Structure formats: C-alpha cells, structure tokens
Amino acid sequence: MENGNGVKLMENGLSLKLQNGTHWGFRGNKDLDTPPEITIRGVLGMLKDTIDPADTRSTIPLGHGDPSCFPFFRTTEVAEKAIADALQSANFNGYAPTAGLPSARRAVAEHLSADLPYKLSVDDVYITIGCTQAIEVALSALARPGANILLPRPGFPIYEARAAYSHLEIRFFDLIPEKGWEVDLDAVEALADENTVAMVIINPGNPCGNVFSYEHLEQVAATARKHGFLVISDEVYDHLTFGSKPFVPMGVFGSIVPVLTLGSISKRWMVPGWRLGWLATNDPNGILKKTKIVDCIKGYLNISADPTTFNQAALPQILTKTKEDFFQKIINMLRHTSDICDQRLKEIDCITCPHEAEGSMFVMVKLNLELLKDIRDDMDFCFKLAKEESVIVLPGVVVGLKNWLRITFAIDPCSLEDALGRIKYFCQRHSKQK
Ligand SMILES: *Cc1c(COP(=O)(O)O)cnc(C)c1O
User: Can you give the pLDDT at residue 116?
Assistant: First the structure.
C-alpha cells in the first residue's frame, strides 16, 4: 500500500462500516478499553462544587477555555450581524448538504489558502460542528482494525476519548518542556509502525501555549512521510500568537505529507457556543483521495448531524469581514495577561514555568510538591485551592501531566492579578518553610 509519494495509508473502505458498527454497539463490546473518565469539563465542574459558599470573594476561573462571558472578549459585531442577517433572510431554514454549504466551504478554502503555497478548493473543506466534530470525523475516517494513532502528551483529552471509541490504539509521544514543548521526534520514530495511521499536533498549543516553528513543523512532516502516516493538525487557536514565532499552518507541508487541518471560529472569534468548525484536506498530491480517506470522511458526514444552516451561511461574512482591529485587540490582551502570569508566577516558589506561553490562552506550570507540606498531588492542590481561595485551576493530570497545572490567562487583568495573589498566599500557607 506504499504509493509513489512514500505515503502508505489504508486502502479499505471498511473503516466506515466498522466505525459505524462500533459507534452503535460499543456497550456490548468487551474489547473496548474503558473510555477515559476524567475530562476537562468534568473536573472543572467538580472544582466549582468545592468552592466555599461562605467565601465572600468572587470565584476566579483560571481553568476554562471559553472567555466569551468576559465583556472584553465579546465577539465582533460583524460576526453577530452576519448570523442575524443569515437567520432573518429565511433562506437557510432547510438542511445543508452533509459536507456543508458550498459558500461556507469556499470561504474556508479561501481563508486557509491565504497562508498556503497552493490553493485549497471547495472540495477540500468540510464544515463541522466545531473543531470537536472535526476531531470525530478525522479519527473515525482513519479507524480500521489494528490501527494506532500517535497523540501528544500533554494534550487535549477529546483525542484520547475519541480514539478509544473508534478502537484506535493510542500511543503517546511527549512534548518536551525544555525545548519549548516541541515534539519528541525520537519518540515518534520509536512508536511508529506499519499500523500507524496518523499523528496529532496542536498548534498553537493547548495546554502548553507553545507555537511550533516552521523548521520544527518541517521535521514533523519529514518524520510522518518517512513512516507513511498523515498529520492531523489541530489549529483551533490559529493566529492567536503573541510571542516571537508566527503561526505557520501545517498545510504548508502538504506536498511532503497529507495533512488534515482541523479548525473552528470558537477560539479566534470567541464564540465556542456557535458550534462552527471545519476539516480541510491539505493534499496537493491527491493521496487522501487515492487511499479512500476522502470517501470515509464523506461517508461519515453522511451519517452525522450538521452545523446549523444559518450559521454556515454566515461564515463567509465572518471570515472575510472581521476587521484586523478585533484580532489585534484580543492578541494584545492575551500578551498582556500572559506577561502578568509570567511575572507573578516567578514570585511563587512551589510553581515553575519552564516555557512561557507564546500563543493560545494557556500556560503549563510545574508544581514542586517537595516544597509543600500537606499537598499530595495536583488534584489535591486544585481542590484545596478551590476550597480555600475560590480560584479554579486545571490539574495537569487531566491533560496527561501529573503534578502540573494548566492556567488560563484569557481573563481580565484585575481578576488574574487577584487570582495569582491568592495562589501565592495559598502556597505560602502550605509551604514547608513557613
Ligand atoms: C477548544 C478546543 C477544541 C474544540 O473546539 P470547538 O470548536 O469548540 O469544538 C479542539 N481542540 C482544541 C485543542 C481545543 O482547545
């Protein structure tokens, strides 16, 4: 199944049928590993329930990935108007084609092509219910008996859960904090075999807030090509960068290795509730078509729910009419709050930050438990912090790194200062020296 481009992918059309069968029949399937129980939203919900109602101070959330409720992060009027206009036109009350409205697909193709050395066509884009459904479609289309997928650690738990539901064997490679959270490519080399169908990267990163350089992405592409698997690039934080490295889409290397680019308007436009995303095939050599992956994607979408039609109809306006000021304002704020995080965390002995955030809205920091007298692990830290200080932070174990923390800085600067001050007092109170 090796083709002329050095890429081998599954040749069968069975994966859809298999996925369809497993999807409906999983409860009775004794082969299925127990799906991961801990999820970001599940743990954040439990932490919220731990807050002491007697605390008169406001609760400060630094665990979320959705800043849309803060007035500063309200989306642009351009987007709101596009949705309202599409709805009121009464032209979009019916079903859309399962791959998406052609106008929306074309708009995404043009939007993504602006950063690529070649042009995507309408047929390269599928409109999905947020980036979450794009993950579901990608993994379902790749699943087949015996296949494995390489996932980053730390990472985004939905990949693991979705791979488990599709019976894809999961193999984790590390992101290396000392190297700015770059992929451990030696580990990827060691993990890959002839049954590896894809590796996942998230760029800009969740949970690490890192941004991959052009050179590193090129190495990722070369590794994937060498071993004959494709790259799934989660770019849901595309262009949300405020460090020294610019955002480079993985699709730039589409002629080296086929890339499935996953994205949405959820994070860049701060509207995760609108459930509007996409999957794009970056494949100038047509390998995904030849190997029937495209058929699997289309087949899966034929049996899936679609994003609301009027939302799809608004997408061309949203993508082309949003002013640069809106993005710049958000990015400037994220740079500012990320700086506050870096500065204030330096004052806290029991927390180290090996790599300051350069993109997305998160930073990963390490807990030095040996400096704390009565904290067992990251979960214990976060539950006691919620109870004693009414501050919510995500335990690293939820994203694959025990005894780390993921801190969100997409929040107003005053609340962030307040929360980091409370974390500092909490650490002092629980530290061994004092
Ligand atoms: C938020 C997020 C998603 C999901 O995006 P939606 O568009 O809200 O479905 C996917 N991947 C990563 C890394 C995310 O942070």
Answer: 98
82 with 173, same domain: the answer is: yes
Let me know whether 174 and 36 are in one domain.
no
The domain spanning residue 188 has which CATH number? Answer: 3.40.640.10
Residues near 116 by beta carbon (within 8 Å), at least 6 away in sequence: 249, 251, 252, 254, 282
Q: Tell me what pLDDT residue 302 has.
A: 97
Same domain, 306 and 164: yes
Give the distance (Å) from ligand 1 centre to CA of residue 241. Answer: 16
pLDDT in tens, 63-121: 998 999 999 999 999 999 999 999 999 999 999 999 999 999 999 999 999 999 999 99
Expressed in angstroms and rounded, the spacing between residue 35 Cα and the centre of ligand 1 is 19
- Cα 137 to ligand 1 centre (Å): 14
| Residue 118 resides in a domain | yes
Question: Is residue 249 included in any domain, yes or no?
Answer: yes
Ligand 1 atom, smallest distance to 276 CA: 7
Looking at residue 312, its pLDDT comes to 98
pLDDT at 37: 58
Q: Are residues 264 and 170 in the same domain?
A: yes
DSSP codes, 278-323: EEEEE-TT-HHHHTTHHHHHHHHHHTS----HHHHHHHHHHHHH--
Question: Does a structural domain hold residue 152?
Answer: yes
Residues 6 or more apart whose Cβ sits within 8 Å of residue 176: 182, 183, 184
C-alpha 312 chain-centroid distance: 21
| Domain range for 159 | 77-321
Q: What is the whole-number distance in angstroms between the Cα of residue 250 and the centre of ligand 1?
A: 17
How far, in Å, CA of 275 to CA of 136, rounded?
14
> How far is residue 393's CA from residue 407's CA, in Å, rounded to a whole number?
6
Express each pLDDT in 185-232 by its tens digit: 999 999 999 999 999 999 999 999 999 999 999 999 999 999 999 999
Ligand 1: residues with CB < 6 A are 65, 130-132, 156, 202, 206, 234, 236, 264, 266, 272, 277
Domain count, the chain: 2
Domain shared by 30 and 114, yes or no: no
- 128 and 242 fall within a common domain: yes
Domain check: are 277 and 365 in the same one?
A: no
Low-confidence stretches of the chain (pLDDT beneath 50): 1-36
